[in-house]
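**Fold in tokens:**
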Amino acid sequence: MKKLDENTFDPRYINKFASLMTAGNGYLGLRASHEENYVDQTRGMYVAGIYNKATANEPSDLVNLPDMVGMTIEFDGEVFSLLTGEILSYKRQLNLENGELRRDILWKSPAGSRFRLTFQRFAAKNDLHVLATKLTVTSLDKPAQMKIVTGINAQQTNFGRQHLIEEKVRVKEGDLLQGIYKTTESGHTIALAACCTFSANAEIAHASKNRQLLSTIKLELQVDTPSILEKMAVVFTSLDGDLRGESPEVASEAALRSYSVAGYDALLHKSAGQWAQFWKEKRIKVASTRDFDQLAIDFSLYQLEIMTPAHDERFSVGAKGLTGEGYKGHVFWDTEIFITPFHLFTEPEKARKLLRYRYLRLKQAMGKAAANGYEGALFPWESAFTGEEETPEFAAINIKTGKRQKVASALAEHHIVADIAYTVVKYYQNTLDETFMKKEGLELLKETSRFWISRAVEETGQLVIKDVIGPDEYTEHVNNNAFTNYMAWFNVEQALFFMEKYGDHDHQLKERGHEFLNRLYLPKANDHKIIPQDDTFLSKPEIDLSRYKKAQGSQGILMDYSRQEVNEMQILKQADVVMLLYLLPDLFSQDVISENLHYYEEHTIHDSSLSKAIHAIVAARAGDIDKSYEFFQESCLIDLGPNPQSSDEGLHAASLGAIWMAAIFGFANVSIKNQRLSLDPKLPSEWSELAFPIMFQGSRLHIALTHKQAVITKVSGDDVCIELNGTEFLVTNKVEVELQYI
């Protein structure tokens, strides 16, 4: 199993690695900030569903909760810091196998004394409320007095915004620290508790001041004798579904007493057992000439697991997961299109819960549609806990123009409606979950299709969809965006199909739906086989984009051109049409797919973190496997690459989901065709083998692919009919097939 390593301490990367090495379990995420303080370091602990508005007219933030891992450490009165003294050795490692973060340091103080420090921490996978930390310190040269100050620090903010009222802080029975906090607007209660145990005699004192509840611990270090501090902490909130009638305050105290007795190592062992089961059931294995490929895939699966709140269908996955405050922790289309597929094909119940999140907010989506003059359901572009629109009205100030750019996504980026409907259909195709589809699924399809029918307008004898933003956010307020129109058509078509299947008698909707399908304008490929992205894109001027492609992800083009100027040229943040070819490939011929992939890639800067992996999938399916692998490699570098600021505010959750997608939907070329699981492998030359698990229609399969052979093994469930390179096979136990490509 791969581990993520940091072998040198570099302050430039302090927040990037804080995101990369996040510990979590779906309930909470804890950034990998160092225990000791650094000026530019952003600490962060986030609990799924805990949002709050700082002021009434602002969007909700995923609240940065009080810190429980920070420490001030002194040796003989000298403060431990990696910015002073001398670092003799340094290694930090996130063990993806068991979720533990470990940091080993050999440090010489400014006075010349050497100390060995080992910091360990994890968020328990077997009990979602538990955070455990351990510090082992050894003095190597002489006896020394060590002082540690740690506790619960409620001075945390969201980029300066304070979201919590300190309701109660106390020390119970001399050792248990407890803080009770309440969000200022949403009214959620958060109960935090922590206590420390020591391997040697220690003096301990407690104090509360300036929103901090702290313990001061003094120990005498003997030469070459390790001293150990274990700090156990728990988090409970008023949103928890497992309180069994207890208050968060009572639950936190009872839980902490139990866990502090167990100790760090025993708790880690139990948590590691849950991680072992996860990797046994879900790991992808690649035999690659580049070890980085396996690390990138392992890393993406680890992060997908710890960002998904599988414990509660009222919550969903934010664009940064639980790794930082980017995008305010809001939920986008990323969840349905980029994150849900991993769960759908490995543990479908989690995909069901993510769709239930949307269903439970259908009323709010219908309210937004009505407020904008439409029927049906218009889901918010950015969502939080309530289901109301959370998109900020303005973006950051443009440092070139000095003006704020108005954010148009909430007003026009409506394709999220069809994206949700698309995922409902894919969920059913994989699971055949009739119970879900007859109720939640059908209602979602009906109300989303009702929106599109009301959204279209008549023009020159056809129905058209005007003034939209597709996935490419560098072309705003366009008419007949190809991605949007085709996805709306698919949405309505599938609604009618399932209405017929389940005997739904909404005759008016059926009649209007059939008219919509018959009259909606769908952009067709021109004489050069290019599908116009919208009514005007192909007539816009072109510029040389090579310089901006080299700086992809930086949005550097907005320093040279205003957004309005970018909007009037053939410049793409990500290619709508390529995304369309990925989601609905059966609507287009192979030559059209290849031509459009090439044309639109030339005009795409890839400033979106979602872009490269989708290009990788479509390129693999089109047979350009070398280019596909190049795209895949570049997509893996979005978070794991060398850019020190690329992930400061959190990881790119959708990009991580897309890494899994590129391997499974691209190189393995898995899809669902005619109610069967279909494979048409396209392994890159760098990979000699790709092995992975798949859940399909209730059966668990294990698939192993090489350039010459495919082995499909049924692990559990009913026999499965699959299609491999166009030939049907019934998998009753194991199927071995020779492949015809190299």
